[in-house]
């Protein structure tokens, strides 16, 4: 009993019921302890950002570009959003081209458009990659928990 009161063992007791145990986890029935290699050494290569954060960043990027091109090019919001979406998804039909209005300064607008497109393409690519990693992580965790419960029920 005195060993279980030790702080180092108290933190390593069995996980709560229903918690999936990974292959790296070690469970000892004799001591009633549970040790996870994963919890002691966090994986620095795996970054999990919620999908909602990526979607908010994408909508903010599209909205910011929509407002920028609406003011620079005197386009309506739908046309500006259409141009931003088509350009950032690299579809690029070319039916709307910035710099065609006679009231705007061509050099400044070209610089802003170029910076927006370069930054937007990089940010859009990063967000799609993070969303893909999050979906793969969720599916992997679901599969591990299903496999754990399947082994527990069948006894293999």
Automatic annotation (TrEMBL):
<protein>
    <submittedName>
        <fullName>Potassium channel subfamily K member 18-like</fullName>
    </submittedName>
</protein>
<dbReference type="InterPro" id="IPR013099">
    <property type="entry name" value="K_chnl_dom"/>
</dbReference>
<keyword id="KW-0813">Transport</keyword>
<dbReference type="GO" id="GO:0015271">
    <property type="term" value="F:outward rectifier potassium channel activity"/>
</dbReference>
<feature type="transmembrane region" description="Helical">
    <location>
        <begin position="47"/>
        <end position="66"/>
    </location>
</feature>
<feature type="transmembrane region" description="Helical">
    <location>
        <begin position="109"/>
        <end position="131"/>
    </location>
</feature>
<dbReference type="GO" id="GO:0005886">
    <property type="term" value="C:plasma membrane"/>
</dbReference>
<keyword id="KW-0406">Ion transport</keyword>
<feature type="domain" description="Potassium channel">
    <location>
        <begin position="57"/>
        <end position="135"/>
    </location>
</feature>
<keyword id="KW-0407">Ion channel</keyword>
<dbReference type="Pfam" id="PF07885">
    <property type="entry name" value="Ion_trans_2"/>
</dbReference>
<keyword id="KW-0472">Membrane</keyword>
<dbReference type="InterPro" id="IPR003280">
    <property type="entry name" value="2pore_dom_K_chnl"/>
</dbReference>
<dbReference type="GO" id="GO:0030322">
    <property type="term" value="P:stabilization of membrane potential"/>
</dbReference>
<keyword id="KW-0812">Transmembrane</keyword>
<feature type="region of interest" description="Disordered">
    <location>
        <begin position="1"/>
        <end position="20"/>
    </location>
</feature>
<dbReference type="GO" id="GO:0022841">
    <property type="term" value="F:potassium ion leak channel activity"/>
</dbReference>
<keyword id="KW-1133">Transmembrane helix</keyword>
<feature type="transmembrane region" description="Helical">
    <location>
        <begin position="78"/>
        <end position="97"/>
    </location>
</feature>
